[in-house]
Design a protein that fits this description.
three-stranded antiparallel beta sheet; 9% strand; binds iron/sulfur cluster; mainly alpha
């Protein structure tokens, strides 16, 4: 049965699959790497595989600047929330509420990350969390340890939110 809900307005409110929250990189299909490189985009090359690092430099003001010509992986990706709307398990409004709650949680986490050393915001969120935790572990002062505990707590809440996107 076709989905009766229009999900097209949800992604610009979210962008978690482009901004380094859900993924660290996007694998590129054969031929896509040259196209992306010609546009000046940075690539990760490992062995025979090439990927587009996240947060994606194509993301601007919550929109993909290469939308018409985006990688196949991006064209085909549907997160768990979009799939649940298409399956009639959630309405668009319910999903938008979940996206907003998740975004608020991630904002809280990013505010805590800003208090930790060595966490450039050009890195994906999972890497920033690992870097922050490691740097805070070596700082015994009460303020750093409070930030460390706050990060662990907010990270756990965030992960429970993100499960719904990865289902
Ligand atoms: S995570 Fe889902 S709702 Fe968010 S931008 Fe990606 S596909 Fe859209
Ligand atoms: S190319 Fe576009 S759709 Fe793909 S990750 Fe980057 S911003 Fe998102």
């Amino acid at each position: 049965m076709a989905c009766k809900e229009d999900t097209s307005s949800l992604c610009p409110d979210c962008t978690l699959c482009c901004d380094g929250t859900l993924f660290s990189s996007i694998p590129l299909a054969a031929g896509e790497a040259d196209r992306m490189e010609a546009r000046g985009l940075p690539l990760i090359r490992r062995g025979t595989g090439t990927s587009l690092p996240q947060p994606c430099q194509c993301l601007n003001a919550n929109l993909c600047t290469h939308y018409e010509d985006r990688p196949l992986q991006c064209m085909q990706f549907k997160c768990g929330l979009l799939k649940s709307v298409e399956a009639g398990e959630r309405t668009t409004d319910e999903t938008r509420t979940l996206i907003r709650e998740t975004s608020r949680q991630i904002t809280k986490l990013r505010e805590l990350l800003a208090r930790a050393p060595s966490t450039p915001d050009t890195h994906p969120l999972s890497r920033r969390l690992a870097e922050a935790t490691s740097s805070l572990d070596s700082l015994p002062d009460p303020g750093s340890q409070e930030t460390r505990r706050g990060l662990a707590q907010e990270r756990s809440v965030m992960e429970s939110h993100l499960k719904q996107f990865l289902d």
